[in-house]
Write a structure and sequence with these properties.
The protein is an alpha/beta fold and 409 residues long. It has 14 helices and 15 strands. The chain has helices spanning 5-9, 16-35, 40-47, 51-63, 130-145, 183-191, 200-211, 276-288, 294-298, 307-315, 319-343, 359-372, 375-378, 392-406, and strands at 38-39, 67-72, 83-87, 93-99, 103-110, 115-123, 154-161, 165-166, 171-172, 195-199, 220-225, 229-235, 238-239, 347-351, 383-385. Helix 3 (40-47) packs across helix 4 and helix 10 crosses helix 11 (319-343). The longest helix has 25 residues, at 319-343.
């Protein structure tokens, strides 16, 4: 009995002909994902494989339910019209989980990147303990149980976490590092589906690179402006990880000479003066000094002011919130100027919660970039707000799970 593509995917020990066959199928799936529907002749030319070989691979993938024959080419003139083939969207699904400090968002996407179901801002408190991990797994299982598609069609789950994540090994060194076993395997054992772990900023960047505002640019920087500050890097159209897989710790550049202790344990990090943590600290200090704000009038004294409260206040024209966002924007811009001088990128994207304040943060950042970067380097680098917004993380998580399971590159 012939092994299906799904059987081959789960065979980590495949060698020889079996290994070559699975890679051929992945090449075809990746081509369809990047280019769209194609003929046998087009696939043969682009993948440098014989027509009989491509035909055999396509027939196998049709039998496996991954690829569909979409009929004759429309609009071709003369001769016998060839058939076009492409992905069957409902043949496979992927779950994306974006873990934030006070909530998680979960989404389901199909094989062609379409979001089928999205549940945003599910209440969740990210704490570094086993109870928090158990709750995370329970919320993922609840989402899957409520789906109308068969669980067997969900090939993978992408999970984004803040901090140091080794996406190759599946270890998290910032949260839930309780066992010798990789966190991805621990969660996998509780949900029954293959799990892929990723740093949240890098996953958001990947979502934006593939389904957002990036339109052909090859060297792009994505800034995740949230409680912390993360960075996703695209070099020559490929996500950059660095030697150990921890690239993008932009928030921990020692840019300030201060005595503020960063969450990483060091002093003077960019995050101490230019992050959601810094913003909430500054606003609290200002209110204690007697400054007025919507938040001072409406805030429950028993409830701590959150970053989202300040963002909402700024978008409702609160002067103090706007002034403080401009202040951290200037600091962030100073850091971005450093990145532009080093990378000379095609595009810089502002994402994360703080990007929701629009020009309140973009303009101070742009002003600081103009002030601190070399004009010859920065003049050709546009600064744009994320197109995907809050969904960048869940889209990126779904796409990364799809990529790691089905594609070669």
């Amino acid at each position: 009995m012939r092994k299906t593509f799904f059987d081959e995917l789960n065979n980590d020990s495949a060698t020889g002909v079996a290994y070559k066959t699975i890679n051929l199928k992945k090449s075809v799936l990746e081509y369809f994902a990047n280019v769209g529907k194609s003929t046998i002749a087009e696939l043969s030319k682009e993948l440098n494989l014989s027509v009989p070989k491509i035909t055999s691979v396509i027939n196998d993938l049709i039998e496996d339910g991954m690829v569909q024959d979409y009929g004759k080419v429309v609009g071709s003139t003369g001769g016998r019209k060839p058939n076009v083939f492409g992905l069957l969207p409902e043949s496979a699904f992927f779950v994306g989980v974006d873990v934030n400090q006070s909530y998680i968002s979960i989404a389901l996407s199909d094989l062609e990147k379409n979001l089928i179901k999205v549940c945003e801002k599910i209440s969740f408190n990210l704490e570094n303990n086993k109870e928090s991990l158990e709750l995370l797994c329970s919320l993922i299982n609840n989402f899957i149980d409520e789906l109308t598609i068969p669980k067997v069609k969900i090939l993978g789950i992408g999970i984004n976490l803040t901090g140091r994540i080794n996406s190759t090994t599946g270890y998290s060194y910032s949260f839930f590092y309780f066992n010798e076993e990789p966190l991805s395997k621990i969660i996998e054992s509780k949900v029954g589906i293959r799990v892929f772990l990723e740093n949240d900023s890098r996953a958001m960047a990947f979502g934006e690179f593939n389904s957002g505002i990036v339109k052909g640019e090859k060297d792009v920087l994505f800034l995740n402006l949230d409680y912390g500050i993360g960075l996703g890097i695209l070099i020559n159209s490929q996500l950059y990880y660095g030697k150990s897989g921890y690239s993008g710790e932009f928030g921990h550049i020692p840019l300030f000479n201060n005595e503020i202790l960063c969450r990483c344990g060091k002093k003077g990090c960019l995050e101490t003066e230019a992050s959601g943590w810094a913003l909430t600290r500054m606003l609290k200090e200002k209110l204690q000094e007697g400054s007025t704000s919507i938040l001072s009038k409406n805030n429950d004294p028993n409830k701590a002011i959150q970053m989202d409260d300040i963002i909402l206040a700024a978008n409702n024209d609160d002067v103090l919130a706007i002034e403080l966002i401009a202040k951290i924007g200037d600091h962030i811009g100073r850091g971005i100027a450093l990145l532009i001088n080093i990378f000379n990128p095609d595009l810089v994207i502002l994402g994360g919660s703080l990007s929701q304040t629009g020009d309140y943060i973009r303009l101070p950042i742009k002003s600081a970039i103009n002030k601190y970067s070399l004009s010859l380097v920065s003049n050709d680098t546009p600064l744009k707000i994320s197109k995907l917004g809050k969904q960048a993380g869940i889209i990126g998580a779904c796409l990364l799970a799809r990529k790691r399971l089905l594609f070669l590159s």
